[in-house]
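REVIEWER CHECKLIST
Item 1: Sequence provided? yes
Item 2: Single chain? yes
Item 3: Sequence as submitted:
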Amino acid sequence: MIRIGLFVICTLFFLRFSWSCLKNPGTHGFYRFFVFEGLLLLVLLNHPYWFSSPFSPVHILSWLLLLISVFLITQSLLMLKKRGGYAERESMPENHYFENTVNVVEDGIYKYIRHPMYSSLLFLGWGAFLKDIRLLTLVLVLFVTLFLVAAARVEEHENIRFFGVSYKEYMKRSRMFVPWLV
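Item 4: Structure as written out by the authors:
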């Protein structure tokens, strides 16, 4: 019953956060909402198993992925604040203020990964999935992964429209989610 209550409360928060994006399926925020919902379900479904067998190899890998997730979100927010700048984007009213950077950030974690916040969510999803591997949670983590890719691709098109050639060049020098891989 508590998990259902948490799901409803968090979903209401995500709806509030994503409301303007949900009206426009052409924005990255539209897909991000479904990522949040999938992650919420994964965490709530697997929560009872987070501390069962915490030192098993699968749980150690899970904890490692979760720690990487925390590192990525922390580093990305710090770099955006330090190097991103801010300006209102009339062409993208759905964006939140922290998304409206005026500079292509290429320092720190952004030197290697174009979407470290999405990478953080990706690692969170797979880390939560490994806590209790079942068909339902596998479907959820694959759903989250597909919607993260969709959100990133849409955001890249938005960034190309806003930043132009400099973002295209940046895309050639960096990976979408994981350095040296994807």
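Item 5: Key structural point noted by reviewer: The chain has six helices and no strands.
Item 6: Recommendation: ____
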